[in-house]
Specification:
seven-stranded mixed sheet, Rossmann fold, 5 domains, 27 helices, Isoleucyl-tRNA Synthetase, domain 2, globular
């Protein structure tokens, strides 16, 4: 097969992906191997590939491909999440474009449109993941509203209800007026916003006196049902038992007393609006206050809003403040920074709202999940710092509001048969519900027509918290071969911003329904940000087109670019230059392969330098493999790549290939050539998880391979005994080579001009490296001397001094002047460092590491001065 002169990713990637797919390398079935299972954090069915997906799925693919190479039965399950709120919003918007209002069509008709949307757009992101090289088991692709998934959700709902853990309650909830659904506490994002604090005067009934309250929401005064004062506040003792008149609506409301009011905060008077504030609701219940809800579901004002009925809350805020001012009730306003709750999905400002909802009791459910992470090593977090966040949330967990006022999702299996608060049953089918309703009501005349199913659906996360089990049908068939083999899964890779939404809840459900953890390790990625540290998003326009990046730099280049700068749990400052770095690495590997393939091979003796170089590289490879394995074990994936990167770029490409390269137009011996090819194959194996396309392309060019011999299913290298002495000796020899090369560069001595080198050998380095040093530097001979060589250029490697006799091409006088100038500068630098170190204040107050750095600078300067003075003496 002819080898192209350049590596062009888009001519390679589709071909190899199709090859992998056709040969079923991604598919897994239970067998006698150790399983490696990973489930994808299901992206929204409405989504397209963005930088966060790119990072997250690259990491999962690295872990999966490495597990496959290690001989494990790797199963990476892909899928998508139905994303109730986001998808329903998309479908509603699409219908609106077609002139259809959701309110004007039936639930069944709406769901037909929703499924059309899903079928049209639902697979987009999964197809894009293939472009990235993701080796998912596509035969196992799941969707959170697949039939078995929905049945699993229903079964779990019924089970938890029967256990007394799910209940229906009239509670204050977080209401998203744009999506017109309730949200859980975790779906509310609090943002600091600049607003105003309005001081409003309420007249005392039957008196000219007024009391002033402060509020950030003047529109809610229309729902006030009391003014509250602290009974210990001397300023307001005379108001006990009196009433006030609410401005604008002129409603008479009582003044109540409660120690909840902070005497020192604001005016000391608090307006109570039980329908629109959690704390006010508690006070309202305590003091038997009336509850007046002034908002419609879309946050416009209802009939209690008087002449503001039908207007948006923020429009009313401005208008009502103006009216209050005109009526003399607005005392003043002040700038005020307030924490405002917003919807995680729609970004709308949340309204506290009283509503009948379904809740899941969490207090006892979380206990095994707390123990599994915090009290044992059953589940491990990487980085470990996220355990503190987990502990805080799990220790303060509130009941989970699991109902949503939507149509897209799993419908709550509750059936109502009367108007009473408890006139409902929970069942899998309406036929089962009828039997239960007849028994519960003692009315066998009830019919199917008397039952109506709850209109709400369960929270999307209530389906995805079962994901590691339901992808293997472990809820409906808890003893099937897949769930018994693949569960618990091995690793989970996710972003920390869904640690509560998803990670914690999966752990809870795993212990509840399998009595064991859902996964062993949780690797938290960082958030992908731009160079200004802003989170990448469509709204900011700072997120690059993921597919264009792949087109420009190749999938391998993008993968490397992302991973090289993505330490676990730390945010990634993304820059396209990182992808260029990845592309350059691809080209470096490709060009190195072409160099080797271009050598003529002959049956000639192997040079000692080549033999030694190959021995060294084996030692270096094994030393690096130990480091790579350690990084993988600690989920330092970017560090594992960096170690691999340095091995291939520096040790293999820059050193080994130079050591073994035959002279110009000369052949290479077959022993060395075979060893280099074997080394290249080992390199490709450790590179493959990071750069699957390039490595498979080179692997298949090296030799004709059967499908069983493809790189994707090759064997991960085994660690052999590491010869640390050999590695250390080479490090010394490489410094000698660099020293000679530097002198050539500085003095413009061409490589074709052979040099002689003398060594004052105090370090007693093995002379076996001399042939290798001579080859790489065009040195004709290395001699060992007992004294300094007069009139020679010099450099040091540790305690050894190397001399290169001065040839006629070098201007001795100019060289002496140059050394004298450098000596003067270095002495001045040393003096400044010593002055800093003699300052007791600096030494005592500076961090220990900073002081150590300054001491090292002084030691390096002293050593350099000694070398320069010897060089000067030898040339004088």
């Amino acid at each position: 097969m002819e080898i192209p002169s350049k590596y062009i990713p888009n001519q390679v990637e589709n071909r190899w992906y199709e090859y992998w797919m056709q040969n079923g390398y991604f598919h897994s079935e239970p067998d006698n191997r150790e399983p490696f299972t990973i489930v994808i954090p299901p992206p929204n069915v409405t989504g397209v590939l963005h930088m966060g997906h790119m990072l997250n799925n690259t990491l999962q693919d690295v872990l999966t491909r490495r597990a496959r190479l290690m001989g494990k039965n790797a199963c990476w399950v892909p899928g998508t999440d139905h994303a109730s709120i986001a998808t329903e919003a998309k479908v509603v918007a699409r219908l609106k474009e077609q002139g259809i209002n959701k309110a004007d069509i039936s639930r069944d008709d709406f769901l037909k449109h929703a499924w059309e949307w899903k079928n049209e757009y639902g697979g987009v992101i999964l197809e894009q993941l293939k472009k990235l090289g993701c080796s998912c088991d596509w035969d196992r692709t799941a969707f959170t509203m697949d039939d078995n998934m929905s049945k699993s959700v229903t079964k779990v709902f019924i089970d938890l209800f029967d256990k007394g853990l799910i209940y229906r309650g009239y509670r204050m909830v977080n209401w998203d007026p744009e999506a017109q659904t309730t949200l859980s506490d975790e779906e509310v994002i609090y943002e600091e916003r600049q607003g105003l604090l309005y001081y409003v005067a309420y007249q005392i009934e039957g008196s000219a006196e007024k009391v002033t309250i402060a509020t950030t929401r003047p529109e809610t005064i229309l729902g006030d049902t009391a003014i509250c004062i602290n009974p210990n506040d001397e300023r307001f003792k005379h108001l006990k038992g009196k009433n006030v008149i609410v401005p604008i609506c002129n409603r008479v409301i009582p003044i109540i007393e409660d120690e909840y009011v902070d005497i020192e905060f604001g005016t000391g008077c608090l307006k109570i609006t039980p329908a629109h504030d959690m704390n006010d609701k508690a006070l309202g219940e305590k003091h038997n206050l009336e509850t007046i809800d002034i908002f419609n579901a879309d946050a416009t004002l209802n009939s209690f809003g008087l002449h503001y009925e039908g207007q948006d809350r923020f429009v009313v805020r401005k208008a009502i403040s103006k009216e209050l001012e005109e009526k003399g009730s607005l005392v003043k306003t002040e700038n005020y920074i307030n924490k405002v709750g917003t919807s995680e999905r729609t970004k709308a400002v949340i309204e506290p709202r009283l509503s009948d909802q379904w809740f899941l009791k969490m207090e006892n459910l979380v206990k095994p999940a707390i123990a599994g992470v915090l009290d044992s090593d059953d589940i491990q977090f990487f980085p470990k710092k996220f355990e503190n966040m987990y502990r805080h949330w799990m220790s303060n967990v509130r009941d989970w509001n699991i109902s949503r006022q939507l149509w897209w999702g799993q419908r709550i299996p509750a059936f109502y048969y009367g108007d009473g608060q408890d006139d409902f049953v929970v069942a899998e089918t309406i036929e089962d519900a009828l039997k239960l309703a007849q028994e519960k009501s003692y009315n066998d005349k009830l019919t199917l027509e008397n039952l109506r199913q709850d209109e709400d659906v369960v929270d999307t996360w209530f389906s995805s918290w079962l994901w590691p089990m339901t992808v293997f049908n472990g809820i409906l068939e808890p003893d099937n071969k897949d769930i018994n083999y693949y569960y618990p899964t091995s690793d989970l890779v996710t972003a920390p911003d869904i640690i509560f939404f998803w990670v914690a809840r999966m752990i809870i459900s795993g212990y509840e329904y399998r009595d064991e953890r859902p996964f062993k390790n949780v690797y938290f990625t960082g958030i992908v940000r731009d160079k200004q540290r802003r989170k990448m998003s469509k709204s900011l326009g700072n997120s690059p087109d993921a597919l264009k990046l792949i087109d420009d730099y190749g999938a391998d280049g993008v993968r490397v670019g992302l991973l090289l700068s993505s330490a676990a749990g730390n945010d990634l400052m993304f820059d396209e230059d990182l992808c260029q770095q990845g592309k350059n690495f691809s080209n470096k590997i490709w060009n190195g392969f072409r160099l080797v393939e271009g050598w003529e091979v002959a049956d000639i003796p192997q040079p000692e330098s080549a033999k030694l170089g190959i021995e060294w590289y084996h030692a270096k490879f094994n030393q690096t493999l130990v480091e790579i394995e350690d990084h993988f074990g600690k989920f330092r994936i970017s560090d594992a790549l960096m170690a691999t990167y340095k091995l291939v770029w520096d040790d293999y490409s820059s050193w080994l290939l130079e050591i073994v390269k035959p002279a110009y137009q000369q052949p290479i011996d077959k022993t060395t050539y075979a060893a280099v090819i074997a080394i290249l194959e080992q390199n490709l194996k450790v590179l493959h998880p990071f750069m699957p396309f390039l490595t498979e392309e080179i692997w298949q060019h090296i030799a004709k391979r059967s499908p069983e011999e493809a790189l994707i299913v090759a064997e991960w290298p085994k660690i052999e005994t590491v010869n640390d002495v050999l590695v250390k000796e080479f490090e010394f020899a490489s410094e000698v080579v660099s020293g000679i090369r530097n002198i050539r560069k500085e003095k413009n001595i061409p490589m074709k001009e052979a040099l002689e080198v003398s060594v004052l050998n105090e370090e007693q380095v093995a002379e076996k490296w001399d042939d290798l040093i001579c080859k790489l530097t065009n040195v004709s001979a290395i001699s060992y001397v007992d004294a300094a060589v007069e009139g020679a250029l010099t450099f040091r490697v540790k305690s050894n001094e190397y001399f290169i006799p001065v040839g006629g091409a070098i201007d001795v006088a100019a060289e002496i002047q140059k050394i004298q100038e450098e000596l003067k500068y270095t002495k001045g630098f040393l003096q400044s460092v010593q002055k800093k170190l003699s300052n007791e204040r600096f030494v005592n107050n500076a961090p220990e590491q900073v002081v150590a750095i300054e001491k090292q600078k002084a030691a390096d300067a002293e050593a350099k001065i000694e070398t320069l003075e010897k060089s000067l003496a030898s040339m004088s």
